[in-house]
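agent: user wants the structure for Acyl-protein synthetase from Paraglaciecola hydrolytica. delegating to structure tool.
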Amino acid sequence: MRQDPTLLTQEQKEQHLLPLFNFLHQHHQQHCSEYQNIVAANEQQISATNVDALPFLAVRLFKQLKLSSIAPEDIFKVLQSSGTTSQTAAQVILDKDTSARQSKTLVNILQRTIGKQRLPMLIIDSPNIVKDPKFSARAAGIQGLAFFGRDHAYALDDNMQPNWPVIEAFCEKYHEQPVLIFGFTFMLWAYFIQALKQQNRQLDLSQAIVLHSGGWKKLEAQKVDNVTFKAAIKQRIGALKVHNFYGMAEQVGTIFVECSHGHLHAPLLADVIVRNPYDMSVCGIGEQGIIQVLSALPTSYPGFSLLTEDMGRVTQIDTCPCGHLGKTISIDGRLPKTEVRGCSDTQAGATV
Ligand SMILES: [Zn+2]
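agent: tool returned. relaying tokens verbatim.
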């Protein structure tokens, strides 16, 4: 695809993606016996004629099974997903090709928002997080994003308190230029913005680009929505460019980044479908359902089409005022305690 990918209509995009998804469907049937068993049980061995006819796996299967489409000697790295304390972490098997494809795609997507230059970067976390195996998912997220910055400074100490000397030195040095700030949504709010508020401090980081991810669940409980979140950031550090992004360890690379109009856009090599939780039918624009994400990247594990545990809706198709075409989504939160059970009933077994 040589033309500007953001100018492909949804229909054009699907025409490009469908053969890639069908290829991945065949590829994983041939190389992953679990995947083959799951789709065979659902009688979906033939090529799909529509993106929404492709099979999908429940994302939690990656917590229950070691799903791999490569030989053990080709494993380059095993990515652990976050998972709360009560859950076991998912395991995502990567070979060098898939890992390289993920990195390249992430660079392409994020450079559209933050530009090609590596900016001085303030990370809203503790520097020791990257050394603690307990937090490997958080560390992987930080390390993935740290690639896009330089002169990294960690804003928090080991007790999750602001490290004021580090923050002040960073502001002193870079207050008159663009910088990158990254943090997980809740941490950015609770340990940085709220800490600034409590101390009645304001920082001059008006040219900062703020990236954050990781879900709104804890903030919803505090009645903090995206508008409130952005207003507080503007008030405390002066930054106007605040971009949420949606992504998961099971589909690294194809992240959905919030545009200047506040919408999460499906990236070039990915698609999204929202399904009715009761019968798995495809929801219309604006209708709430379970989010299914499709990514053209993973060949080392069968995760190209996943039913997430997130509720949300498709908000627009080809009509976002920012000018980027394709689908935009909103995330409404996690599914209430659900059981998307076992292997064979992953297609129809999502119950709410
Ligand atoms: Zn947009």
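agent: one observation worth passing along. DSSP finds nine helices and 16 strands in the chain.
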